C-alpha cells in the first residue's frame, strides 16, 4: 500500500512550481460556502461574507497532520495576528473531513485561524488538484474584497507561503491608505 507521504513526494516532482497556480492574477475567485472549523468549533464559511471584512488569504493544503501541512499551519498561526491587523482573514482549505479539521484547528492552527473542508468541486474550481490524489496541492491565494485574485502561489514546500501572502496583503493595504 502506497502511503500518502510517498504520493506527495511523487507529486512534488511533477507539481512543485510557482507557475502552477491556475487562477491568474486579476481573475475572479470562485465564491463558495463550506464547513469550517475555528478552535475546534465547526461553522459555515462563506467566502463572500469574509471578503466584506477585507482581503482573504486562502491557502490550500494537501492533508491535515502531515509534516508539511503542520509546518505551514504553525507558520500561518504565528502570522495570523499580523494578517488580522492588516485587515485580512486567513483560511486554510483541504479535502479533509470537518471532524479531522476540528482537531487540526486546535492542535496545529493553534485556535488562530479557520480551516475549511473542500469538496472535489471546490478544489477543481480553484484549479489546485494534486494529480493522482484527489486532494489539493499547496497553493496560496490572496483575494481582494471585490473577489479578484491578488496573488497565486503554488509550491509543495510550505516555505514561502506566509511571506508571499503577507507581502501581497501589505501591498494591497498600502493602496488603501
Low-confidence stretches: 1-19
What is the average per-residue confidence, as pLDDT, rounded to a whole number? 89
**What is the element string, with H for helices and E for strands?**
HEEHEHEHEHEEH
Return the CATH topology: Glutaredoxin
**Helical segment tally?**
6
Please give the CATH class.
Answer: Alpha Beta
User: Based on the structure given, which CATH architecture is correct?
Assistant: 3-Layer(aba) Sandwich
Describe the overall structure:
This protein has a single domain, classed as 3-Layer(aba) Sandwich (Glutaredoxin). The protein contains six helices and seven strands; from the N terminus they run H-E-E-H-E-H-E-H-E-H-E-E-H.
Short description:
By secondary structure, the chain is α/β, with parallel strands linked by helices.
Q: What keyword list fits this structure?
A:
single chain, 177 residues, alpha/beta, Glutaredoxin, 6 helices, 37% helix
Helix-strand layout with pairing:
Layout: H1 4-15, E1 33-38, E2 41-46, H2 47-51, E3 56-60, H3 67-85, E4 89-94, H4 98-107, E5 114-117, H5 120-125, E6 139-143, E7 149-154, H6 161-174
Parallel strand pairs: 3-4, 4-5
Antiparallel strand pairs: 1-2, 1-5, 3-6, 6-7
Amino acid at each position: 500500500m502506497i502511503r500518502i507521504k510517498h504520493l506527495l513526494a511523487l507529486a512534488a516532482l511533477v507539481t512543485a512550481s510557482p507557475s502552477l497556480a491556475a487562477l491568474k492574477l486579476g481573475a475572479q475567485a470562485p465564491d463558495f460556502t463550506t464547513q469550517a472549523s475555528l478552535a475546534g468549533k465547526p461553522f459555515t464559511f462563506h467566502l463572500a461574507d469574509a471578503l466584506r471584512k477585507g482581503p482573504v488569504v486562502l491557502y490550500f493544503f494537501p492533508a491535515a497532520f502531515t509534516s508539511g501541512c503542520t509546518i505551514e499551519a504553525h507558520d500561518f498561526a504565528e502570522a495570523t495576528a499580523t494578517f488580522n491587523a492588516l485587515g485580512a482573514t486567513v483560511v486554510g482549505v483541504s479535502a479533509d473531513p470537518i471532524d479531522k479539521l476540528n482537531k487540526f484547528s486546535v492542535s496545529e492552527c493553534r485556535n488562530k485561524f479557520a480551516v475549511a473542508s473542500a469538496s472535489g468541486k471546490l478544489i477543481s474550481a480553484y484549479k489546485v488538484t494534486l494529480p493522482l490524489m484527489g486532494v489539493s496541492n499547496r497553493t496560496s491565494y490572496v483575494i481582494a474584497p471585490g473577489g479578484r485574485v491578488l496573488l497565486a502561489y503554488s509550491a509543495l514546500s510550505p516555505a514561502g507561503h506566509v511571506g508571499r501572502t503577507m507581502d501581497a496583503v501589505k501591498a494591497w493595504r498600502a493602496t488603501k491608505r
